[in-house]
Design goal:
The complex is a heterodimer of chains A (about 375) and B (about 290). Chain A has about 375 residues and is mainly α. Chain A has 14 helices and two strands; from the N terminus they run H-H-H-E-E-H-H-H-H-H-H-H-H-H-H-H. In chain A, strands 1-2 form a two-stranded antiparallel ribbon. The longest helix of chain A is centred in the C-terminal third of the chain and has 33 residues. The two termini of chain A are about 40 Å apart. In chain B, strands 1-2 form a two-stranded antiparallel sheet. Chain B is an all-alpha fold and about 290 residues long. In chain B, strand 1 and strand 2 form a beta hairpin. Chain B has two domains: about 60 residues, no CATH class; about 220 residues, MetI-like (MetI-like fold, Orthogonal Bundle), CATH 1.10.3720.10. The chains are: A mainly alpha (about 375), B mainly alpha (about 290).
Chain lengths: ~375, ~290
């Protein structure tokens, strides 16, 4: 061993002939650059055309998209030409990365630009840069902060959902008959479209004159069962509807964890005479901790996207009591056509989410390490 | 023994109560679609006893026995939306499964270095797309699509849906590939197969059930998606959730209509749930245990 070099070995190690001829390498580079050049030329023509500097051009930007796709394919192909066998391995990950960059990163950069502009779709002026004005407007916008505060309540409701889901998962995992039937029945709310749920549950079943839930509430002694006029009750109702849809997801994830519990440990504890509660507290819950935390994180991710049912059932009312950030921004777009401001709000929300998730995941990891 | 019996009663009681909570809205939707205006406003519950079922809701959709074989515009409209939804969600799921499986396989078998990013970073890059709320992308994508003439097209919808489900596929498939022993492929490579050939011939058949799970989960999410569809589609590529959401007439809501169309929207996935429950559960469980 004359030279000591750290060679990172792939899990799947391939002895690959690494001789790629010089001309093939050059061909690879030529393909990439020529297709890139083609894209740039088409883009320039189209820019000039849309600014009405030149008369010929295309009716829309589609050709630029095609040139972009061609360029992306050329990059992929050139990997194989330039790097040989290593390049072929790159092709596994390359399409997905390219896809996400194209559909997420470009729009995000563009959105970042929009969020610093004053752009009202209903005015004729088009967009113009207005610096931090949107940001100052946001700071003094009580409805946005109200929506963010609602999101905190909505996220906290996840803990209640988790408790219910855990209980049901334990029951499903016990010695019962007809487990398959119960599993399918419990799964079904997750299958239903939020739009259909909004209409048939939110607007029909909770209807205060004929809705069966309202009739039931009246039978229980609540004289005027209105679910969407009192802010607190409205918020709780939305939480229940969202919980109804997503508890199945948590049940299934937790049930998978329960079924993977080591049987010997449970048997041993039973032989030692542990009762059900100590069994749960000292054995099941600690072993289930990683699964539980994963379930909670996934559920919170879905909760932060909460929008459909609110947009359709309450449209944020009464007085913004049920607003989620998304439904608030949607109204900003739709009712006020305030595009620049709405986009800034969504970016600020994204920043909040990224911070929250980073803290949450770090916290979860630390907790898991301490537990093990 | 007595203690055991009361425990059983409590367990089954809770399970049946929750089953009732899960299934009652479906029962309500199904029965409402056979009600007339009078039986809706009285909140009647049981067909044939409380109220006489009528085909009114389904007739307006063109699906009642007397309208089934005659020309019907609402049915044409409904079927067009139905096939839009099916086509878009199936294509998006298929594309996501293809892209995601390749990426997940690559990440589980090879060490990559793209700039400063190594495997864990690339994985995180993929999975982090999951926390991106659709509202952040909504407007930029809308403007971009308008420039590219992709608004209200199937391909535009497929691309954006693929994006929303891609992280889920990668998450599920990464565990699936990690569970396949590498020795199998090494043997094939020693025999002279290329990396791609061993992927298609050896690994793919083993993980096929996992791929099915990922595909079905994607299908469910795409089928029910409303927010982006409401934004991007208007006529040609309009999907069923958008159609259902825009059913309100100015005066009053025709509940029997609404119920019929909601039932039609939910029915395919209920059937999927009943027959493919195993795969759905497997997909979700894969995320829970190793995640």
């Amino acid at each position: 061993m004359s030279e000591i070099k750290y060679i990172e070995r792939d899990p799947l190690y391939v002895v690959a002939p690494s001789t790629v001829s010089h001309t093939t390498k050059r061909a690879g580079k030529i393909i990439v650059w020529s297709s890139f050049l083609l894209m740039v030329v088409i883009a320039i023509i189209q820019t000039l055309h849309s600014n009405e500097r030149i008369s010929f051009g295309f009716s829309n930007w589609r050709p630029v998209l095609y040139a972009y796709i061609l360029w992306a394919v050329a990059i992929g192909y050139s990997r194989v030409l330039i790097y040989g066998e290593r390049g072929k391995r790159n092709l596994f990950v390359f399409p997905a990365v390219m896809f996400i960059i194209s559909i997420v990163i470009f729009p995000l950069l563009f959105g970042l630009y929009i969020s610093f502009t004053d752009w009202n779709l209903s005015s004729i002026d088009g967009r113009k840069f207005n610096g931090l004005d949107n940001f100052y407007q946001m700071i003094s916008d009580p409805y946005y902060w109200n929506a963010l505060k609602n999101m905190i309540y909505y996220v906290l409701a996840v803990l209640v959902e988790f408790t219910i889901a855990f209980l049901l998962a334990i029951l499903l995992n016990s010695q019962i008959r007809g487990r398959k039937f119960f599993r399918i029945a419990f799964l079904i709310p997750l299958m239903l479209s939020p739009v259909a749920v909004s209409w048939m549950v939110g607007k029909s079943m909770l209807e205060q004159r004929f809705g069966p839930v309202a009739s039931f509430a009246r039978w229980l002694g609540w004289d005027t069962p209105t679910f969407f006029s009192n802010p607190v009750i409205a918020k709780l109702t939305m939480m229940c509807m969202d919980a109804w849809t997503f508890i199945p997801l948590m049940i299934i994830m937790l049930l998978a964890g329960l079924q993977a519990l080591p049987k010997e440990v449970l048997e041993a504890a039973k032989v030692d005479g542990a009762n059900k509660w100590t069994l749960f507290k000292n054995i099941i819950f600690p072993i289930m901790l990683p699964v539980s935390l994963t379930t909670l994180v996934i559920r919170i991710i879905f909760k932060l996207k909460l929008a459909d049912i609110i947009i359709i059932v309450t449209a944020g009312g009464p007085g913004g009591a049920t607003d989620s950030v998304t439904s608030f921004i949607v109204r900003e777009y739709r009712d006020r056509s305030n595009v620049g401001y709405g986009t800034l709000l969504s970016f600020v929300y994204l920043i909040f989410i990224v911070i929250l998730m980073t803290i949450l995941i770090r916290f979860v990891n630390r907790w898991l390490q301490r537990a093990s | 023994m007595k203690n055991n019996l009361s425990e059983k009663i409590i367990i089954y009681g809770i399970l049946l109560l929750w089953t009732f909570i899960c299934l009652f809205p479906i029962y309500w939707t199904a029965t409402t679609s056979f009600k007339t205006a009078a039986s809706v406003t009285q909140g009647l519950l049981i067909p044939w006893i409380d109220f006489e079922p009528s085909w009114k809701g389904w007739r307006n959709l063109g699906f009642s026995p007397d309208t089934l074989f005659v020309e019907s515009n609402p049915r044409e409209e409904f079927l067009a939306r139905f096939f839009n939804t099916a086509f878009i969600s199936a294509s998006a799921s298929a594309l996501a499964v293809i892209l995601g499986s390749f990426a997940a396989y690559g990440l589980s078998r090879f060490n990559y270095k793209f700039g400063f990013m190594r495997n864990p970073d690339i994985s995180f890059f993929f999975l982090s797309q999951l926390i991106l709320p659709p509202v952040v992308l909504a407007l930029p994508v809308l403007v971009l699509y308008r420039e590219l003439d992709l608004l209200d097209t199937h391909i535009g919808m497929i691309l954006i849906y693929t994006l929303t489900v891609l992280p889920i596929v990668i998450w599920i498939m990464r565990d699936q590939f990690n569970a396949v022993p590498i020795e199998l492929e090494e043997a094939a490579l020693v025999d002279g197969a290329s990396v791609w050939m061993s992927f298609f011939k050896i690994v793919l058949p083993i993980v096929l059930p996992g791929i099915a799970s990922a595909f079905i989960l994607c299908l469910i999410l795409c089928w029910n998606e409303y927010f982006l569809a409401a934004l991007i589609t208007s006529t040609d590529a309009k999907t069923m959730p958008v159609m259902v959401a825009s059913q309100i007439s100015s005066q009053s809501i025709k509940w029997w209509n609404m119920a019929a169309i909601s039932a039609a929207l939910c029915l395919p996935l209920i059937i999927v749930a009943i027959f493919l429950e195993r795969y759905i559960v497997k997909g979700m469980a894969a995320g829970a245990i190793k995640g």
